[in-house]
Amino acid sequence: MHHSDKDPIIAVATAAGRGGIGILRLSFGKALEAQIVGRLFGENCTLKARYAHLLPFLGTDGGVLDRAIVLLFPAPHSYTGESVLEIQAHGGPVLLSLIMRTCLEKCRDLGLRMAEPGEFTRRAFMNGRMDLTQAEAVADLIDAVSESAVQAAGRSLSGEFSNAVRDVDGNITELRAFIEATLDFPEEDIDVIGSEKVRTRLVQAETGIRAILENARQGQVLREGVTVAIVGSPNVGKSSLLNALAQEEVAIVTDIPGTTRDRIEHWVSLNGVPVKMVDTAGIRTTDDVVESKGIERTLVEIRKADVVLHLKDASGLIRDDTEVLDKVLKEVRHGVPLITVNNKVDLCESAASGGEIAISAKQGVGLSELKARLLEVVGMAATTDGVFMARERHLQCLKTAAEHVSRALLLIDCDPMPELVAEELRLASRALGEILGETTTEDILGMIFSKFCIGK
Ligand code: GDP
Ligand code: ZN
After folding, report:
1. CATH topology (fold) of 226-378
2. Ligand 1 touching residue 243 (CB < 6 A)
3. Per-residue pLDDT tens for 38-95?
4. Got the DSSP string for 122-162?
5. Which atom of ligand 1 is nearest to the CA of 343?
6. Which of 41, 182, 232, 439 has the most crowded CB, counting CB atoms within 10 A?
7. Atom 2, ligand 1: which residue's CA is nearest?
8. What ipTM score was computed for the predicted complex, to two decimals?
């Protein structure tokens, strides 16, 4: 069946499962307002705008299913920009799905259907209630796994990210208009392109984009988190370290070498940055089939990690099987930081040498230093105040925009052709517009909204 983005839609907006209340939401064109309200609450029923009405909700057989608080937000002053009807019922999953089916049945001839994931927010975007970055922030706010992530998503939702992008874009567009204007008056022969004013403003634009990019990069880390693979020989204390960082028992700690055969991962929050710590099987030469499978899996983890933490035994009791370990550490991707950490310093007199971090997983020594180093290598050492939530898509657009502005700067140095400079600026603007959803293709929009939960 072909779904139109004009169909009236309905979904349960609250989480699945039991709850005190459960909310159903309908969105539809203003023209359908009286009909839908009539079908659901009786032909004589009219709802005052944005006013809480306590009404019985009747089943198809006329019996009362529930008494609900009903609110009507007439277009355009609603979440979607269409008319929105909210039914706040009791939060039982069976009740809610029964109410939904009843609504669908009563309004079948009006074309009411279940909403697709993200469809309410998609309509909000289509109707200009929010730009694309804000729409994405809605999903990110719901999915946020740390308080810093919540704050960053909140900043994007309130438009801080969009406004920063719009500001730079505005400057670029103004500059382009200025340059294009000179194209129409070549006889005046003033060196507009080579002027200090143009150069200064281009440099400002580039600096501006790079500043947004840095905030966005940190936002992306808050959104997606960082994966740290802990590798090392058996019994150096990998599982103990994971437990110490997680501050709870998540991995099995034993004295028997090779115990951690399955991958064990746990999310910890370091300064609000979500970090997935992955405990891996110990690395050593082995004939044991299960254990060598574990090593293979460790290799897989290493290739996926954002940071690799090589844990060593500082006490000297456990020596690394350097041959195997070197082979494994060779698999660390280019550009992925490798941190060497000496564990069990409680067992030795002098701490480890030369810049390596010394800890005792057992006694909780040196952990804050280790956390600080982890945050440092992923570029999250500074406070995340002012960071806004962002995605890979945004970073790509920002990088593209920055490249075009850099190229414009290069162009004004060599035989300046105003047309070419203007073209670079046009491309920079297009990339920035894509962030806000002004020049975004249908495919990209479909991909973004399909990741939303139903009812949002
Ligand atoms: P893994 O095989 O690398 O995961 O090592 P485990 O975390 O299972 O630890 C192996 C043994 O080393 C256990 O007996 C731990 O109690 C011990 N151990 C771990 N960290 C420390 C530490 O910092 N100090 C001391 N003294 N013992 C530790
Ligand atoms: Zn272990």
Report:
1. Rossmann fold (3.40.50)
2. no
3. 999 999 999 999 999 999 999 999 999 999 999 999 999 999 999 999 999 999 999 9
4. HHHHHTTSS-HHHHHHHHHHHH--SHHHHHHHHHHHTTHHH
5. 23
6. 232
7. 235
8. 0.98
